[in-house]
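Appendix B. Chain record.
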Amino acid sequence: MHEPVTLNILYAMPIPVGHRVEVHVFAAAASMFQGVEPVPSQPLVRDLETGIIYGAGWHYEDVSVYVPHQVRPLPLHPRRDLQVPYAPLVGRVLACRIAAIGAGKGQYQQTTLVVEPLPPEQVYR
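Structure tokens predicted for this chain:
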């Protein structure tokens, strides 16, 4: 049995306790002058019970020309050119907390998920 993994995520991800999830961490440019590095605070997470996919805008399209508060017509599936530094984590949600951080226009939602990794025979049923 593996130890539970705590994920601190920069957006709302209301996944019920007990649901199986598949967590992907991708790499992104750290800055204009540096290479890419993993971004564990912005994973792409698929709820395997419902099929709902949670992710950041950059998982779906290049958002380098971002306009705040503008709704973007994103595709349903993630980009194929994302760099994958780690194998996905598949596990069961043990705890989920969503908190509002900051105040006013600077407020954002942060999620903490505690995920228990599943053994290979329980990953997909």
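Further analysis of this model is presented in Appendix C.
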